[in-house]
Amino acid sequence: MSEHNDDLIAVTVWYDYIWPWCYIGLARLDQLALEYPLEITYKSYYLRPDIPSEGIIRPLGEGEVVGGLLTGHIGQTANDAGLTMRRASVTPNTRMAFEASEYAKDMGVFEKFHRECYIAFWEEGADLGQMVVLQGIGEKVGLNSSKLKEILESGLYTTRTREQYDEAISIGVNGIPSFIIGGYFFSGAQPYEIFQRVAEMVRNPS
Q: Model-level pTM?
């Protein structure tokens, strides 16, 4: 339980499932939520709008293998955050994943769906650009897979996700994850102490 009063701290996050630091950013917010009451709004950000609908093959560096754990600084940071992050074979186009996430939001299961998308991509190597993958994730969190397919094929949420991205561009967001916490803006999955410091500034303005 939070040591602080019960006034919610408003948080806005721009994310894309294909960027590892966004998954780490989610872990940072999970940790922050243990100390402060948060009201989080997640918004889509097309990190790679150039990716075709079928996705692109992820290039591997020397010594890297598909399904292998991330290494180096990002790998260590993920490990420190308690996350399992592996190299997928394909970088998907995340348009449908964003739209499915917005549908999940309207159905009251966004947080579960959102988390499962990260797990599917970073732990299991699933292609989030595939309808059947999103249907499977939807079923896990209680969504009707046939209805989800119908919604995605209709393009019902295309405008909403594009507006979220356009909003980010209009206010100068040029990298993700990006956060607005109680009016304070910053980008990147910064060390947890930064999140904590910003929350304290919001809670106890000078």
A: 0.94
